[in-house]
């Protein structure tokens, strides 16, 4: 009986897509390290200042990346939503000030085109019948049911179907929020340093346990994982 229950539980927690909502790159980075593949996503390699900014961006979806960007620091910040995005140019050149105007403008153009493509992809996944798990890594001070429910509602209002929302918090948070059918709550020991998310010292902070429980179906035809310039080997 336990074996059957475990099989049913495993099937229930297996999704066609696991989609990161941020608030930063740690969710996608740990997914990439665990599953050895990644499906590019709108919020995979981004930084949100708050859950309110993310909710506002989802509610005003067309505004994401449709206007101008603040110069990178070293991430590009969308002026409309305040969501920050990784460009493809060498981050070091932005940090040390050696990036030429041509490099900066090419990176800006590439980013706008990429965001447009990823927005279409985000909506396509959200609105089809595939099973989806959205993951949001939440700051301690934002860990409350009101904010979490608003995030869930924003996804639903955008047309998302057949999905669940997983909220990940740090173990040190005292607030207790129980699972529901549509919203799952899990924790890790601690979050990685925001400026050093890919450092190997954080590989045992608890994300593997989460991805043991909530698994992703590997897409057919995916040959190898992507490599990122900011990903430490």
Primary descriptors:
233 residues; alpha/beta; 4-stranded parallel beta sheet; 4-stranded antiparallel beta sheet; 7 helices; 10 strands; 16% strand; globular; disordered N terminus; disordered C terminus
Entry summary:
The chain is built from seven helices and ten strands. It is an alpha/beta fold.
Structural write-up:
The protein is of the alpha/beta class and 233 residues long. The chain has one domain (2-216). Helix content is 35%, strand content 16%. The protein has seven helices and ten strands. The strands form three sheets. Strands 2-7-8-9 form a four-stranded parallel beta sheet, sandwiched between helices. Strands 3-6-5-4 form a four-stranded antiparallel beta sheet, with no helix packed on it. Helix 3 (51-59) packs parallel to helix 6 (145-157). The longest helix has 27 residues, at 101-127. It is globular and about 50 Å long. Residues 1-8 and 227-233 have low confidence and may be disordered.
Termini separation comes to: 43 Å
Query: Shape, please?
Result: globular
Average pLDDT reading = 89
What share of the residues does DSSP label as strand, in percent?
15-25%
Got a strand count? Answer: 10
- What structural class do helix, strand and pairing data support? alpha/beta
The major beta sheet can be summarized as: 4 strands, parallel
Q: Could you state the order of secondary-structure elements as H and E?
A: HEEHEHEEEHHEHEEHE
Stretches where pLDDT is under 50 for at least 5 consecutive residues are 1-8, 227-233
Backbone CA Rg: 18 Å
Count helical runs.
7
What is the helix content? 25-40%
Q: Count the domains.
A: 1
Strand order of the largest sheet: 2-7-8-9
């Amino acid at each position: 009986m336990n074996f059957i229950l475990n099989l049913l539980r495993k099937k229930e927690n297996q999704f066609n897509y696991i989609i990161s909502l941020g608030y930063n790159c740690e969710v996608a980075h740990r997914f990439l390290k665990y599953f050895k593949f990644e499906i590019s996503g709108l919020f995979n390699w981004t930084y949100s200042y708050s859950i309110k900014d993310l909710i506002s961006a989802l509610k005003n979806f067309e505004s994401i990346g449709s206007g101008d960007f603040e110069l990178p620091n070293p991430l590009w910040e969308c002026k409309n939503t305040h969501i920050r995005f990784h460009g493809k140019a060498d981050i070091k050149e932005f940090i040390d000030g050696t990036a030429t105007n041509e490099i900066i403008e090419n990176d800006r153009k590439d980013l706008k085109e990429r965001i447009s493509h990823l927005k279409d992809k985000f909506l396509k996944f959200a609105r089809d019948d595939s099973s989806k798990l959205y993951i949001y890594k939440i700051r301690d001070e934002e860990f409350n049911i009101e904010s979490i429910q608003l995030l869930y509602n924003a996804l639903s209002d955008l047309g998302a179907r057949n999905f669940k929302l997983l909220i990940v918090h740090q173990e040190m948070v005292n607030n207790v929020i129980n699972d529901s059918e549509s919203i799952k709550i899990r924790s890790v020991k601690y979050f990685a340093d925001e400026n050093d998310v890919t450092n190997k010292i954080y590989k045992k902070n608890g994300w593997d346990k989460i991805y043991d429980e909530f698994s992703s179906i590997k897409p057919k035809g995916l040959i190898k994982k992507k490599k990122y310039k900011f990903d430490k080997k």
